[in-house]
Amino acid sequence: MYNDEPLNVLAEHFLAVLLKRADEIVKNINSGTSMGDCVLAVPYWFTDLQRHSIMQACDIANVHCLKIVNEPTSIALGYGIYKSAKGLFHATDATNIMFIDLGYSCYTVSIVSYVQEGMKVLATVCDSEFGGRNIDDIIVDIMIERFLKQTKIDVRNNRKAVLKLHAAAEKAKKTLSPHGVTEANVSVECLAEEKDLNSVLKRTDLEEALAPLIQRIQAPIDACIAESKLSREQIAEVEIVGGSTRVAIMKKTIGSIMNCDASALNYGLKCTMNADEAVVRGAALQCAIESSRVKVKPFNITDRVGYTMNASFDNDGDDDAVEIYSRGDDFPRKPKRLTFRRKNVNDFTVHITYAESALSLLPAGTKKEVADFTIHMPNPYPVEAGMSENDINEPHDVRVTFNLDKNGCIYISKAELMIELPNVAVEETPAPAAEAKAEESKTDESKEESKDVTGTEETPAAAVTQEPPMDTSEQGTLSSGTPAKPRKFKKVDLVVTTNIIGKVTKDQIKAATELEVSMAFEDQLIKDTSDRRNDLESYIYSMRNKMDTSLKDYGSPIDVSDFKTQINEAEEWLYGDEGYDATKN
φ and ψ at 372, to 5 degrees? Predict the structure, then answer.
């Protein structure tokens, strides 16, 4: 409800409101100075679309976001950069650390390898449906059943009562977390129908109820270790963060799974980081690294690709899809290149989708389609000296270079029409699509990433083949692997149109931005009006007092009486309907 009317708000706009509030907090503690740059941390399981949406929210809020970073990577950076600065890592022999983040809404396990001035994420596994809120829900269910037995009142459908129970459940969870505490009082006044809830929650009862949740702890740990290709013995430490790791049974279970010393403090687990602020502190350091406003000692960060993605040409279907990126690939990485053999003069589209293997990892309801990239062929078609009419009408290869941007989103950095010059002929047999593989280009990565062209790769109707980097004179390769005769090409840059599936349109973002500006103006107007009302109220009380004290001798009795009358009239107006509804002016 906004201005007493229902209003539908984009998720991107809703996040923008929170970002604007963050900016206000920054202003309030920095003498009105806004934040210059920021880095936003997101769960590792966030999809390509969600990452695009985060950047759109920043546009609406007019916040300069330098990068979107994964939460486990942010935690690992906060852990490693200071230790590296103190020289606590070896220059070549890696130190492997496991991070377990059990927060309010997500459970993440990651293993990171450290050397001096660098870190590499070896594996990350998430359970996006498990966190502290599940513990709260179980405590709420226990209290609902107890209240039902005491009063015969079922409050499951009473939203206000359930909200009160959640506040009490979180308090009870925190009370039971410290070592040695065995029970917690749960009290809620007037929970429903003027009835109070008074109960005692014992730790043993809670741990028994948490048994199904506790069973979910081990699978992500085992999966992360398997994905990292390490053994438990190769992991030097297990660092735990997130508020829910304070729950004793959680720490005990994690320590047991990792074969830690049960008699040691925190069951042998490490708690050297701020459990609540580990992510945001790492994000602040990442922002300092990315920002041109701050100079930071170099620290190399290598993350991992979260989902396997395929490229297919037009409507060829999944059978002809070529894998572009695999889950676990290093990120950032060198560009990948696909060559589409013998394309005609018509525009064509490359479809990027999540692979079948990624579907079980994606959030519920996520579309398989990621993006469509339309490659626009030149019009008129370029003609080179010596080309016959047959040469002009002959289809040519199209070479497309893919990459991931700094936020982990796929795009096409370059698409080129490869026109073979007629002075050198070569006989070529195209490779079948089923055998086609995407290859990493050997071009310099920094040069490719400096391009600001968005797009993605594609798969050919006939074939996609591996190809070495080509300059003005290039060496071809036959499908059999036999070296071909030298070929000369003219490269023509092609225009790429990007369509991120599910992304809100520019018009929607523009409308949301205008709405946000309008809402911010209304908020400021309400605040200013309230300030003027408070100023008038203060003036009335102050002057009424001064007319009888410090200003008593500066006016005649008639003047004082008239002024007090005006003060009383202003007070009646201020507290009446007219003053309440008055505008700022």
Answer: -120, 135
pLDDT in tens, 395-416: 788 999 999 999 999 999 999 9
In the three-class reduction of DSSP (H, G, I as helix; E, B as strand; rest coil), residue 104 is classed as coil
The gap from C-alpha 457 to its chain's centroid, in whole angstroms, comes to 24
The string of DSSP codes covering 511-539 is HHHHHHHHHHHHHHHHHHHHHHHHHHHHH
Question: Which residue, among 200, 204, 207, has the nearest Cα to 143 in the 3D structure?
Answer: 200
Q: Cβ distance 122 to 99 under 8 Å?
A: no
Element holding 308 (H helix, E strand): none
**Max Cα distance, the chain (Å):** 113
Contacts of 529 (CB under 8 A, 6+ apart): 582, 583, 584
Q: How much is the average pLDDT of 258-287?
A: 94
CB neighbour list of residue 506: distance below 8 Å, 6 or more residues apart: none
Query: CB neighbours (10 Å) of residue 368?
Result: 14
What's the pLDDT tens digit per position in 9-46? 999 999 999 999 999 999 999 998 988 899 999 999 99
Decide which of 517 and 386 is more confident.
Answer: 517
Residues whose CB falls within 8 Å of the CB of residue 312, separated by 6 or more in sequence, listed in order:
318, 320, 321, 322, 350, 351, 353, 458, 459
